[in-house]
Amino acid sequence: MSTSDLDLDQLSPSERTALETYTSVTGQEITEAIPLLRRSQWNVQIAIAKFFDGEGPDPLEEARAALPQSPPPQVNRQTRNLMTEDITEQLSLAARTTDPAPRVDTQPEDQPTYRPPFIIALLFTPFNLFVPPLWDIVSFPTSTVQCHRKPGPPGARRNTTGRRSLGPKDTAARFIREFEEEHGSHPIPFLENGYNMAMEKAHRDLKFLMVILISPEHDDTNGWVRDTLLAPEVVEFINDPRNNLLVWGGNVRDSEAYQVANSLRITKFPFAAVIVHTPNVSSTAMSVVGRIAGLTAPAEFVNRLRTAISSNQEPLERIRSTRAEQQASRSLREQQDSAYERSLAIDRERTRQRREAEAAQQREEQEAADRQAAEEKRQRDLIQWKQWRFQSLRQEPGTDAKDAVRISVRLPSGERIMRRFASDAEIEELYAVVECYEELQAGETSAVSAPIGFDHQYEFRLVSPMPRAVYAVEDGGTIRDKIGRGGNLLVEPIVEDDEEEEEGTS
């Protein structure tokens, strides 16, 4: 079934919440999670238990399947084959060596703890001080009798007056704290989380989980902890990293440990069990592969642990090698993807640089074309201006004009302009004659108007060589006032002068 076949919009808000909770715990795909939740009536706890413990046959579906085909009535006669019964019993005993590891319903971590009002708590303070000790005195004979008979699983929930119910993580922390207060500092690495989380960690990390359950009411508990559990050889075996062993402990006075004890069908305390993932049962199954109940010598305790671990090590090694290969393939694929991404990044950078270079070249070419077009327009406007200015030049005075000014101007090409000017002619008139020299040589031209938007600038200066004097057009004034009745002038291009000044400065 594909994801498209599952319309998530058709799910109710409660079903969506159950789906999110289930997938966050198990990590299963949505296409497989929804059918399993539907078979579990959208009960998250039942679905999680089926995911980790394996989903057994559905009795209701089997009954429905058997309705159309009712078996014929049989004669009420029993036949027994002692040999077959003996073999069947042995097989059933062998099959019971790996029981499914149960899961328990625990108090949520975020469940608020009820605290009574201060006045009510103050009123009940005497009861809290005197009732628990009195209850211990009354229950002492009963517990003494229980110590001398074969312990079994409690038939009813024991009174836990004075012991507040906590979440799984807080309960584990309290167990570790009480264990240290009772037996001092110890090297047992108890997990600081709940039983279900310990199971998930063992399944995820492919490690063995040793569950230790103790009952303070049994006289053998302290001796077993001191002489067996904290024995040097047991501690060394537990802490050996080659054994891949996790340890979770619980006190049956707590709700979670009590449920675990009932689920494991414990018949004797103290108790230890070894739980491990059994891939030959299912891909998510956790099974109890070892049980150690009652007083046990340290050597026998270690031997049982070693037997349980060694007999179930090979399937885990296969899964570890498979995971290692998958991780190596994943790492290789990630390295290849990373190299491919780096190559793509380099190609993208080269493409970006090439595009930027092409864009810069296009801008330069456009700017050059714009400059060339502007220069061509300036040249056209300059020619038009010269023709227009030539038409507005004043007539040269005749030889009989006594107050005329005679000027000789030498051009950069070596040619010389000889012209007479009226005494009141402006210095700009002299500059215009030099600028329009070619038009003067050509003679008459057609009438033109001044170019629109053109600001003409003279690109030369008129200077007197001896003594040197510059007659700038922007200074204004008449030719007679500036130069006198006559003079010899030179034309100096302004651009060339600026370049010479820049060279001299550098």
Automatic annotation (TrEMBL):
Residues 400-475 form the UBX domain. Keywords: Coiled coil. It holds the Pfam family UBX. GO terms for molecular function: ubiquitin binding. One of its GO terms (biological process) is ERAD pathway. Residues 59-78, 93-112, 146-167, 313-376 are annotated as: Disordered. The keyword tRNA-binding does not apply. Residues 331-376 have a biased composition (Basic and acidic residues). InterPro entries: Thioredoxin-like_sf, UAS, UBA-like_sf, Ubiquitin-like_domsf, UBX_dom, UBX_domain-protein. It comes from the Eukaryota. GO terms for cellular component: endoplasmic reticulum. PROSITE patterns: UBX (PS50033). The keyword Membrane does not apply. This is UBX domain-containing protein.
